[in-house]
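Lecture notes, continued. The same structure-token format from the folding unit now serves as the input rather than the output. Read the line below as a description of shape only.
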């Protein structure tokens, strides 16, 4: 379906293609569907500058839509899913001190699935403007890398179909670009991982059981809150007999 969608953008939409590609991120992100093929498609169809701009804006807006959905009508559902991600407990504590920094590092480090992270962050006290800016910056390296790969696939497709020819110098630049992209992604991820671990460790001394009013508190499922509370009162015996 996504392949047919990209083909439709390429052949039928003309200059509106980048805008439609960006808008397509919103439903995919809200539904937690991986959108990597759209990012590759942006590079394949529009090249590095235009493809990167469309993919970057689309992914950020999509993440913002999921964030707002989780902070409003989907809040109870997100809170019910927190027990599936115990490692997120430390994150909620750290965000109270450094919201922008933690969100940025979480985008650079694949600690949690990106689409689920949109919803988990929605029940933390991070302001939406910090969330959007940190998300845009944090997703930029992987977006550039995937768009570049998509652009390279387009070039290779042109060569295999006989539509274009590359010199040895051009081939060398393509291979070098791919290698540099991979190396940079690994370096950025490792540096961000160290920074994230350090930031979470700095907040380890906080009592995470004492949550702020803005943080969700998940009750123990073994406790039946609907069970009536029974209080027994012993009356003292009368001291005088008739």
């Amino acid at each position: 379906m996504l392949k047919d969608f990209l083909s439709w953008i390429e052949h039928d939409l003309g200059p509106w293609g980048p805008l439609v590609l960006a808008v397509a991120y919103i439903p995919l992100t809200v539904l937690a569907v991986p959108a990597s093929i759209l990012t590759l498609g942006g590079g394949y169809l529009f090249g590095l500058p235009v493809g990167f701009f469309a993919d970057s804006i689309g992914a950020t807006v999509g993440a913002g839509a999921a964030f707002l959905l989780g902070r409003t009508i989907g809040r109870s559902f997100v809170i019910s899913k927190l027990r599936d991600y115990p490692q997120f407990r430390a994150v909620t504590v750290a965000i109270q001190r450094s919201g922008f920094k933690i969100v940025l590092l979480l985008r650079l480090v694949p600690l949690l699935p990106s689409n689920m992270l949109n919803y988990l962050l929605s029940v933390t006290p991070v302001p939406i403007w910090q969330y959007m800016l940190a998300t845009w910056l944090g997703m930029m390296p992987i977006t550039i890398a995937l768009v570049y790969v998509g652009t390279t696939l387009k070039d290779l497709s042109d060569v295999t179909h006989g539509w274009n020819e590359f010199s040895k110098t051009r081939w060398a630049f393509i291979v070098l670009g791919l290698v540099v992209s991979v190396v940079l992604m690994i370096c950025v991820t490792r540096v961000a991982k160290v920074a994230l671990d350090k930031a979470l460790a700095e907040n380890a001394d906080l009592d995470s059981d004492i949550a702020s009013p803005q943080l969700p508190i998940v009750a123990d499922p073994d406790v039946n809150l609907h069970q009536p509370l029974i209080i027994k009162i012993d009356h003292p015996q009368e001291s005088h007999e008739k």
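Point for the exam: The chain has ten helices and no strands.
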